[in-house]
Amino acid sequence: MPHAQRIQAMTESSTESTTPAVHTERQDGVLVATLARPPVNALDDALVDALDAAIDQACSDTTVKVLHLRSAHKVFCAGADLALMQRSIASDEGLDAMLALVRRMQRVAARLESAPVVTLAELGGAALGGGFEMALGCDLRIAACEARL
Predict the structure, then answer these.
(1) Domain ranges of the chain
(2) Binning pLDDT at 50, 70 and 90, where does residue 17 land?
(3) Helix (H) / strand (E) containing 107
(4) Which architecture characterizes domain 3-143 according to CATH?
């Protein structure tokens, strides 16, 4: 199965959940934000909202000096949710919603780039599309040998 189809199959198999898409934890002056949208942290409205909230939290707390983004899964972030994208482009309203989501994803990357705290992306796996853009928005990127960019 080609790579794009494998990623699409993985995003289609994800289910809506009440589990937070990003878990945050304070460790001294570091706010660790762990992406947790199985299986590949595909970007949807909930994950983008949660990332925005984590950035807000880091920027509004003067004791936070570093925002550390990481993943609870093997993949850092596979980019936009391809199944959501495929469903969305079927109608004009859906297309408008998808374009709005893409603009919000870009805003998250821009906010990471201009944040008043040091931003760090821990890349333990693939960072694709919008996930790669998010990593590039960070001041620092640390990639494991198995990371794919």
Answers:
(1) 3-143
(2) low
(3) helix 92-114
(4) Alpha-Beta Complex (3.90)
